[in-house]
Amino acid sequence: MRLRYREGAAARAFIYGGLFWMFLGMLFGLFAALLMVWPDLIVGLPVLEYFTFGRVRPVHTNLVLFGWLTGAYFATLFYMTPRVVGSKLWSEGLGVFAAVLHNLALALTTVSLLAGGNVGREYAETPWYIKWIITATFLLVAVNLFMTVKNRTEKGELYVSAWYFLGALVTTPIIYAIGNQFLLPQNPVRGVNDAILNWFYGHNILGYWFTPVGVGAVYYLLPKLTGNPIYSHKLSMIGFWSIFWVYGPTGAHHLVNGPVPYWVQTIAIAFSVMLIIPVWTVVTNFYGTMKGKWHLVRDSVPLKFLTTAIVFYFITCFQGPMQSLRSVSAITHFTNWVVGHAHVALLGTFSFIMYAAIYYMLPRLTGRAIYSKALQEWHFHLSLWGFLLMFVDLTIAGLVQGAFWAQNQSANFIEGVAMMRPYYILRAISGAVIILGQVVFGWNVFKTVTAGKPFETGQAAGEVAPAQAAQPAGA
Ligand code: HEM
Fold first, then answer.
1. Mind listing the pLDDT tens digit for each residue in 73-115?
2. Least CB-packed of 114, 122, 197, 272 within 10 Å?
3. Sign of the C-alpha dihedral, residues 441, 446, 452, 458?
4. For residue 64, how far is its CA from the centre of ligand 1 (angstroms)?
5. Mean pLDDT of the chain
6. For residue 19, what are the CA distances in angstroms to 25, 68, 199, 322, 373?
7. Given the CA of residue 434, which atom of ligand 1 is nearest to it?
8. Does the CB atom of residue 61 touch ligand 1 within 6 A?
9. Which runs of consecutive H residues, i.e. helices, occur in 38-91?
10. For residue 82, is the peptide bond before it cis, meaning its omega torsion is within 30 degrees of 0?
């Protein structure tokens, strides 16, 4: 029997799965935060072995990066790509199958990491068989979307979002395979080279996956939400090519002042500074496109999320090149500053873009209007203020910690960790506020799907009918 899937089934499956992993991943983050305040929290409990900090932390990072963000990204790709090229998704069934594989990989990741199956590489902790499932998922999604583009009816120039999406789909599986080293027999790369390869992958998963799909989604959503065409197509293409040419060698900036050849560090620093170029293109294009439309932000929560995400994107991408410099890294490296930086990129920027995207896509995928505007506002404000508290707290904590170690060369490392307790308490509080925001979000999504009023295109606050938006095509 051949199963028939309704249009949008793949995107819906990824949104619902992504939300589940987001909750679970954030709860693990909160638990890790509590363990940093009370390291003995679960000492004496029979589950201690499974929930030590060393196991909980990678579960948090894997679930929020691959379960939540990547799930939401796949949904975005399945929704937006067909619309920008003017064709239907090649196979909804294949998309749903990819969602099943994706969720299977995440479930196995959670169990295997809690059981101690960590292979010891940041963001690449999972055992080899899970890496194969993740790679297969990426390849299935890529085949599906390339076939969709092949069948396109819009025969003119590809809209910029499609460039970013397809670029990410070509490069990410390659980077994933290289960095995870699971194609090499018995992982022969060891020591410093292993670290260099790990960070080639660790940073480039940001550069070739989280950045281009996030930016591509912004280029799709902005014209839809404002009714203005993208300010400059040329700028967006400069951004595209500079991201894909410049990111490659930057990973070793995670190893600056470490036992890595000096020239490798210097190349990584030089290329990191050049990352200012794509940031400049995105920020300029954003403000150019928003011209005359700022009043819409007041009534549109998706636009609120997008606007703040762009500010955080600018902060991330200004911080990143600066902290790769040897003099700055000497203070900030190994401190909470870097954790703050990671969250401004992946939570403040890319997760906020995905909140905007889900609010835009959900009514169009379900035919139901967002259940409650008030809950949307609560989601935005709890996420924003919770996140700002976390970011400011970790940034100050990092500077205090870095200055302490720089000024007290003979100090014990653990002294610099112990003095962080007040900051860790604040971080746990900020995490709880963020999670509360996501509970509101989840409830709103649930009520939208089960009890939302019928949706008519263009009715949501701050959104214009697609006919008014010059680009991209499609609803
Ligand atoms: C979608 C939301 C989130 C994303 C994408 C995210 C991402 C990350 C990333 C990439 C790291 C590694 C940072 C590094 O090594 O520099 C990390 C660590 C961490 N995150 Fe999150 N996070 C999110 C939400 C949260 C929340 C809500 C909390 C709750 C307090 C939290 C608590 C933590 C903790 C405690 C660590 C470990 C920090 C350390 O090792 O010093 N995260 N997260």
1. 999 999 999 999 999 999 999 999 999 999 999 999 999 999 9
2. 122
3. positive
4. 8
5. 93
6. 10, 6, 28, 33, 19
7. 27
8. yes
9. 53-62, 70-85
10. no
